[in-house]
Amino acid sequence: MSIKNQSFKVNVNTEIGRLRKLLIHSPDSGLGKVVPSKAQDWLFEDIVHLDTIRKDEYDYYIKLLMYFLDPDKIKGKLAEIDSETADRNFFKPDHKDFHNSLAVIEIQNLLADILEDASIRKKLSAAVCAIEGCTYKRQLQMVETEPKELAKIFISGTLEDDVMIFAPIPNLIFTRDVGITINNHILLNKPAKKARSRETLLMRYIFFNHPIFKEYAENILEIPDPAQHFLRPGEEEEQRTTLEGGDVMMVSPDHVLIGCSERTSAYGASEAIKLLFENNVVNKVTVVRIPNKRDFMHIDTVFTQVKRNMWVLLSSISKTQTANPDEPINFLVKQDHKEVTEIHQFTKHKVQEPKIFESIEALLDDISQNDLKSTEPTQFIYSGNGNFPYDSREQWTDSCNLLAIKEGVVLGYDRNDKTVEAFKTNGFNVIKVKDLINGLEDGSINTVTITDTLVLMPSAELSRARGGFHCMSLPLLRDDL
Ligand SMILES: NC(=O)NCCC[C@H](N)C(=O)O
């Protein structure tokens, strides 16, 4: 079964409203092809063990999403889904027993659906072959390939007989980065890294051609290169117009945050602001410039939202945490502006007078209190409980990159011990995903009543790919808060 003639609602207006639909991509065989010499070019920090990342890690994510977003597919069937005879078929996008959920939506299957149209197969084969430098003969073979198989080839770079014809796109598991839902619009990314450009191409075809997005064709926003782009000197990242989804956060119905980071340039942020204002998508955009380094990559690697009055963040991006002013070194070495956090808030009718926030906490507090009308004081949970060196160690393994499945129920990696302690100190329950799933199956835990919970997800392999569950989700529909 494929998702062909459906159309549905797309709307996300906060980071924490109950999640109803999202795009995901399960680890495909391309992840098992990352080699050490290419790992860094392909933006992985290490090679991963495919079987473990699937069976012992990502499958739990799918099961948990299913209980919350599409329970009929899983409740009462867990033993059967997990049985040896089922052979994980529920989790394999190309298998007839695949879950095929319309709430937990697999990108590979959307791609297979659009490839049934011969003209799309032709255009996309030509485009992929152009960016990957394939031969013309290979291009003609692709056009003749069966759609499900072709979707796998486009993603994994591998033919049916396990022969590689181009590089995989292992980062497609981080669906957040390819596009972002902002109210009822979808903003497509413009990736900074070459390793992610095929993802963008495939997603552009899906958003513009798949029937589920048919009613939103006018609401899909693409960032153009301004005319000056072609005249700017050099090819440095800063001079380019780039934007990746991990740098965009829909924090309240009228307010979007955009990070300026290793991946999103100031030009990218500026073009995105113009698009959002011109199309009346929101009236307020805040640009958060974070230090430009690999560890930080996107703003969602240094902070995410947990509840309307609670955020998890890395203390070193806070201006209030600057070095001791009595230190002689402060007079001897001046901080590069690229190394500090800067916050400018633009409103539609006053772009020329941005409001400045002195610290990330001041901005997040303003969102909690003024945008989201929290009646409780704003709470901050710091990575590694704010203590060196655990703060940076745990940020590196995505302690700040949490996905809220509903307000106050967040998914994070099980390896960030000090951050987990900080959640407990702030009154949160902490539960391993296996225990939560068993509780949801036997009815002792309920998705409606569960509150203030950090769900610990197994992470030994996933964390080597350099992203957490916020990165591994592209929400399409959330309830209003
Ligand atoms: N939003 C995110 O921070 N996504 C994580 C992306 C990780 C991926 N390996 C990358 O470097 O692009």
TrEMBL record:
Keywords: Hydrolase. SUPFAM superfamilies: Pentein (SSF55909). GO terms for molecular function: arginine deiminase activity. GO terms for biological process: L-arginine deiminase pathway. InterPro entries: Arg_deiminase. It comes from the Bacteria. It holds the Pfam family ADI. Its EC number is 3.5.3.6. Pathway: Amino-acid degradation; L-arginine degradation via ADI pathway; carbamoyl phosphate from L-arginine: step 1/2. It catalyses: L-arginine + H2O = L-citrulline + NH4(+). Signal peptide: none annotated. Belongs to the arginine deiminase family. This is arginine deiminase. It comes from Pedobacter metabolipauper. The lineage of its organism: Bacteria, Pseudomonadati, Bacteroidota, Sphingobacteriia, Sphingobacteriales.
